[in-house]
Amino acid sequence: MAEPPARQPWPAPPPPQRPLPGTRLWRTLRGWRRRGLLTIRRLGCGLLVVVVVVVAGLVLLDRTLDGINAMFGEEPVPGSPLDTVAPTTPASSGSERIDLITRRDRLIIGVQEMPGLVEREQATREYSGFDIALAALIARELGVDPADTAFKPLPDGYRESALVNGEADLMLGGYAITEARRTEVGFAGPYLRSPQRLAVPAGNDGSGADVLAAGTVCTAEGSPTALALAPRLGERLITRGSLDSCARLLGSRADALAGSALALSGQRAQDPGAFELIGSPLGETRYGVGLPPGDEVLRHRVRDVLRRAVEDGTWARLYAQYLGTPVPAPPRIGG
After folding, report:
1. Residue 229 and residue 311: Cα distance in Å, rounded?
2. How far apart are CA 12 and CA 175, in angstroms?
3. CATH architecture of 96-335
4. What totals of helices (H) and strands (E) does the chain contain, helices first?
5. How many CB atoms lie within 10 A of CB 235?
6. Would you kindly state where each structural domain of the chain is located, as residue ranges?
7. d(CA 151, CA 135)
8. How confident is the model over 50-105, as pLDDT tens digits?
9. Which end of the chain is more exposed for a tag (fewer CB within 10 A), N or C?
10. Among 142, 120, 140, 139, CA closest to 129
C-alpha cells in the first residue's frame, strides 16, 4: 500500500508592506473630499485665512523692529522728509582742501626754519617755535591731532607751487605777505609784523643813512625789503635766494644786510657778534599763513583761529615764550 504524500507546510505570510510615500496623505485628502471638506469655496476661504495671518505677522514684526530701532538705533536727521538716519560719511565742508585733510587725517605744512618761528631740534628732529604752536591750533580747528601734522621743509621760490599743486596744505615759517604772492596763493593774517632793518659788520662806524646813501645792500630776492629798497638803491641792491646767501657777501661785495628784524635775528643767532643792527626801520614785513588759492572756506577757518588766539591772550603768551619780551601789540587779523 502506497504511503500518503508528505504534508506540505503552510507558506509564511508576506511581510507587511509600508505604504508608498504620499499614499496616506492622498487617502486622507480623498476622504475629506468625499465628506465635502475640500470644495473650491472652502479652499479659497482657507487660503484667505493663511494670507491674512501672514500679513498680520509681517506687520507685527515691522512694528517690533521699529521699537527696537527707536530704543537702540541712531536718531533721525531733523527735518528730513524721509525721516532717514544720519549718514556716517561726513558732509562736504565746502573746501576741497579741508575735505582732503579730513580724509587723510593729516595736515601737511610747508615751512622754512627761522629762529623763534620754526626751529628743529637736531637730536630729536622735532619742530618748535611760534609758528609751530599756531599750527597746532589750526590743526585742532580742522579736526586733526597736532601730533599728526607733517612739516615739510621747502626752499624759497617753490612754496607757492607747493600750495597750488597740493604738496602742502598751508605755509608757515616766516612766509611774508607780498602783492606778487597774492596773485598766486591765498593768505590768512597777518599774524605777525616785523620792522625792516639794516645790519652791518660789528664795529662798523657807518650809519644807516651812510649805507643807504652810498653803500651796497644785500637782501632776499622777492622779499618785502627788496621791494622797498629797489627804488632807493637801484643797482646798489643785491638780491640772493636767502639771507644766508647774503650773509656770505657781507664785508666783501655787500656793505650791509637788509631784512625783517625777525629774519636778521636768525642770522645773528647763527653767528653771534658778527654784525649789528643800525639805523631806523625801513618799513614793515607782515607774515601770514599761506593757503591754496581761492579757498575762502579754509581762509576763514584759519583766520578765526588767529583771531581767537589774539583775543584770548594765546598770541601774547606764545610771543613771550618763543620771541621774548616786551610783547608788542598784536596785529589786526584781516578779514
Report:
1. 35
2. 114
3. 3-Layer(aba) Sandwich (3.40)
4. 12, 10
5. 6
6. 40-73, 96-335
7. 10
8. 666 666 666 566 666 565 555 554 444 444 444 444 445 556 788 999 999 999 99
9. N
10. 120
